[in-house]
TrEMBL record:
Gene Ontology molecular function terms on file: DNA-binding transcription factor activity; transcription cis-regulatory region binding; zinc ion binding
GO biological process, one term: regulation of secondary metabolite biosynthetic process
Protein name: Fur family ferric uptake transcriptional regulator
Cofactor annotation remark: Binds 1 zinc ion per subunit. Binds 1 Mn(2+) or Fe(2+) ion per subunit.
Keywords, comma-separated and alphabetical: DNA-binding, Iron, Metal-binding, Repressor, Transcription, Transcription regulation, Zinc
CDD domains linked to this entry: Fur_like
Cofactor(s) annotated in UniProt: Zn(2+); Mn(2+); Fe(2+)
Binding site for Fe cation: 115, 132
Residues noted as binding Zn(2+) in the record, renumbered to the chain: 100, 103, 140, 143
DNA-binding as UniProt keyword: yes
Family from the record: Belongs to the Fur family.
InterPro entries: FUR, Fur_C, WH-like_DNA-bd_sf, WH_DNA-bd_sf
Length: 153
């Protein structure tokens, strides 16, 4: 984790920002909960446990800065809540998500499934793509298994 924080510190410095203690506390929470797709409020509550002096506005500003610098991706799964997801190091694009419409679980797909689609869009529409997001909404394997088990009982 320390090496990742050091690399984020360098990204901030390159963009003319410092890794203040408040920013570092926010980054640490995001790293510790990398799989959780936390809302700003979730991040704030977790930051507050370790650093009670940090306010909600500071966490919001930090999340917006990290989003602007593409360290974090801001995502919305259709429930009206923005969530924050650390971008995988070295990733050219945002990763994809599978959102279960029954239990709300969010699973991630790390492979870039849209390289061919991007090439077609850039060629046929003369559109320079900078990033893309793909979210599938459906029923996760856990809910499907649960449903099958209930049908056989």
């Amino acid at each position: 984790m320390e090496s990742r924080i050091e690399r984020i510190k360098k990204q901030l410095h390159t963009a003319g920002y410092k890794l203040t203690p408040q920013r570092e506390a926010t980054v640490r929470v995001l790293l510790e909960h990398e799989e959780d797709h936390l809302s700003a409020e979730d991040v704030y509550l977790l930051v507050k446990e370790k650093s009670p002096e940090i306010g909600l506005a500071t966490v919001y500003r930090t999340l917006e800065l990290l989003t602007e610098l593409k360290i974090v991706d801001k995502i919305n799964f259709g429930d009206g809540v923005s969530r924050y997801d650390l971008r995988k190091e070295g990733a050219a694009h945002f990763h994809h998500h599978l959102v279960c419409i029954e239990c709300g679980a969010v699973d991630e797909i790390q492979e870039d499934l849209l390289e061919d689609v991007e090439a077609i869009v850039e060629r046929d529409w003369n559109f320079k793509i900078k990033d893309h997001r793909l979210t599938f909404h459906g029923i996760c394997y856990r809910c499907q298994e649960k449903e099958q088990k209930e049908e056989h009982e």
